[in-house]
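General statements about sequence and structure are easier to judge against a single worked case. For one protein, we set the task of working out the structure tokens from the amino acid sequence alone. The sequence in question and its structure tokens are set out directly beneath this paragraph.
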Amino acid sequence: MNKPWLKHYQDGVPHEFAGEALTLPQLLERASERFGKEPALEFLGHRQTYRQLWANVQHFASGLQALGVQKGDRVAIMLPNTPQFVVAFFGAALAGAVVVNTSPLYVAHELEHQLIDSGASVLVMLDSFYPRFAEIENNPALSVRRVIVTGIQDALPFPQNLLYPLLEKRKGTWVEVKEQGKVLTFGHLLEQAQDHHVAPRSVSIGVDDVALLQYTGGTTGVPKGAMLTHRNLVANAQQAAAWMPDLRDGQEVTLGAIPFFHVYGMTVAMNLSLLIGANIVLIPNPRDIKALLSAIEKSGVTLFPGVPTLYNAINNSPLTPEYNLKTVRACISGSAALPSETARKFREITGGANLVEGYGLTESSPITHTNPVGGEQREGSIGLPLPGIDASVRDDEGREVPVGEIGELWVAGPNIMAGYWQRSDATAETIVEEPTEEGQVRWLKTGDMARMDEDGYFSIVDRKKELILVGGHNVYPREVEEVLYQHPAVLEAAVIGVPDTYRGEHVKAFVVLKPEHSVTPEQITAFCKQQLSAFKAPRSVEFRSELPLSAAGKVLRRVLAEEEKAKMEQATVAASAGA
């Protein structure tokens, strides 16, 4: 296969992938052996060394096994970026369980679907999230036997661990969850294993065993669990490390601001950092720009994986000039297209940090492409395939198109998922087995339209799927439309994404009301927020007498998007003329 991108790899990046096949527990155990006394995690000023982290992971694995967790059981984790997330993630893996990453942004019925579909038997969650589980816990379709709750205070040393609850009670934000029934505290689980000196039972874990169910909506908006193996996840961390040959083992400081419950944050901010012995500065709430800026300055952050929304927030915060961000050396932006002005301004603020755009999918663990961190970066391009990744642009018949022409992007490599959980039909639609001279190649059809230039740089032209990207989060029109249709005043509804300078896109709803019904846009949005995460709710609502339909009666979202684009272009022209 012709790989024109190889000649544009920066010096030090291998042309062939040479990462050793490891399980996730092996990755962390080796890191604890190499960097034992070095800080692994930093949270609210408190540090945990690699040796301490590995010990806590073993205690957590023992605790899960004492609860009856067997190899292959699913353990759902609903936590922000805290030490408990890292301990629970690797502890579950060490016990042989399959982690189910669950977004803390989920409302009760979103959580319910994921728990039922995955068959999770254990749920690890923040105490303040527990009321959402309480709403659904009596559903007989749930398999959850035990709920392990934790709080911020569990990650703090004495006396902060005692003071934190008092401060939260004073603010009226304290949620107390008592140990009863199926509920157990995170601290108690660790203490039991520590006090009894119980080592985790040895479990035979293979690199091709499923380590993670990461839910993604695909083309239909119905969430499916991408089955990512130990090999997939470790390989992608190794590929990312190989892409940045200037990384210094045991010396980097990573800003852990992008959520670990997203595969991008989990791979680049967590797994990559642990692989190279970095200190991860955990940020549970990246919207707190003051705390984030302070962490960068105080901890001397050198590696900052992020999303355009986050870089843009720093660029536009009036607090930014008060902080020294000059230690930041490398940044990879993912989840959405990176505006050139955002990158330019961020480089200026940090004194020249390399901020490059990358690309990936949940199904690829996730990174497949990125611009060279120390090489030629091309504006508007997602860059080059990482070592070990093959990429091809295909037509609708699966034939490779000529250089420069548009087609669907296909990718292959050791980071490509095993398939979708209990969805062999969807797997067959997405994974293509192709015989070559070197053997069978498993291609992942990305659903994104792309082109490759003669140098092997790829550009995404458009999204084949009609998903909306809001601040790096996927929003599927069908999901929002189904909620809109539940409103008693709504007759018809359609949802599209419209450009948003801050979020990349926001959700816009077009609504046809039932006769003799009246409702305001604000009431529509408020209704949606009761049943959807806030970022999924429409930020703008337009009422219409009818929606554009195909001959078969299908709502034509494409026509709405074209009309919206034309309207925005007219507004831009009018504004320019007025100026």
User: Anything to note?
Assistant: The CA atoms of residues 233 and 365 lie 6 Å apart. The longest strand covers residues 439-452.
